Amino acid sequence: MKTTDSTPLSGTQYTLQHGPYTACVASVGATLRYFRHDGRDLVVPYEAEEIRPSFRGAVLVPWPNRVVDGKYTFNGEAQQLALTEPQRSHAIHGLLGWVDWTLADQSTESVRLAAAVIPQKGYPFRLEIEVLYTLDDDGLTTTITAANPGPSAAPYGSSAHPYLVAGEGLVDDWTVQVPASKVLQVTEDRLIPTELTDVASSHFDLREPRLIGDTFLDHAYTGINYDDGGTATVAVHAADGRGVAITFDRTCPWVQIHTADKPNPAVSRLGLAAEPMTCPPDAFNSGTDLIVLEPGDIHSAAWRIHAL
Questions:
Q1: Residue 209 near residue 233 (C-beta atoms within 8 A)
Q2: By C-alpha distance, which of 272, 267, 144 is closest to 219?
Q3: N vs C: which end of the chain shows fewer Cβ within 10 Å?
Q4: Neighbour count for residue 230 (Cβ, 10 Å)
């Protein structure tokens, strides 16, 4: 039988609106396809009829960033994940980035999507995942919730991959502030974590607003300075004073900052990736801040993107 599918390449589209904020979530990867304030892009968008560029705006579970060589050991069992970053031979950004998530609930200002991590080679665990996007006066809040229906414990971490847009120009033209005192160093070729160092007296020190210029960053920061309310904010400003920020709480003790360098200059450094993470790169091997979901456990993490 010949059928025609009218669904866009990026999946079913869910449009949200509240006051000056509008957002669109695409079902493939539960991806934030665009987010705007008074018509101004706050994240790098893409078209509905476009296959999502890399992981732009996607939800990252059950791990963010990289598992080196796709290998790890959990509860005494060695595992080998598919190498989804073949140029560096790593497993990257989890297992649900290209899954078509299903609708669980929707309103004018929110959408909840659901998907399951199916037991498979390299990750023999089942997880039920929901992501809730909610617009209000304070911006767009993303909440990722994972439940382990059993029967065994599972390693877990979460994040998302928005590329923040401060305003006109490229990343080079903006200033950034990251309230973090430690940075995870990585190898130049494969971005394999090596050691945690103090940012003081280095170009990694972004605790005060700093022009990004030609700086290359694809590094995880920690030692987060949370405010009295228990939140921290990564802020990016354009030359005209406007900008965008992402705010997160102690459920995310790490944040990945990436200047989005690409081989093609036409698509390079269009936005600054700022990814609050529950654990650092390669946490499946280091165990650092790795969440272990026991049977019946539920875990949630959230962050908010807002205009400045």
A1: no
A2: 272
A3: N
A4: 10
Return the structure tokens found at 238: 């354009």
Q: Which residues contact 80 (CB under 8 A, 6 or more apart)?
A: 70, 71, 121, 122
- How far is the C-alpha of 265 from the C-alpha of 258, rounded, in Å? 16
- Asked if 79 and 122 count as a contact pair (C-beta separation under 8 A), the reply is yes
Helix (H/G/I), strand (E/B), else coil: 79 = strand
Contacts (Cβ under 8 Å, ≥6 apart) of 100: 11, 12, 27, 28
pLDDT value for 199: 98
pLDDT of residue 265: 87
Is the model's pLDDT at 3 over the cut of 90? Answer: no
Predicted confidence band of residue 282 (pLDDT cuts 50, 70, 90): very high
* C-alpha radius of gyration, the chain, whole number: 19
On average, the pLDDT of the chain sits at 96
User: In the structure, what pLDDT confidence band is assigned to residue 4 with cuts at 50, 70 and 90?
Assistant: low
Distance CA 148, CA 303 (A): 22
State how far the Cα of 248 lies from the Cα of 232, in Å rounded to an integer: 6
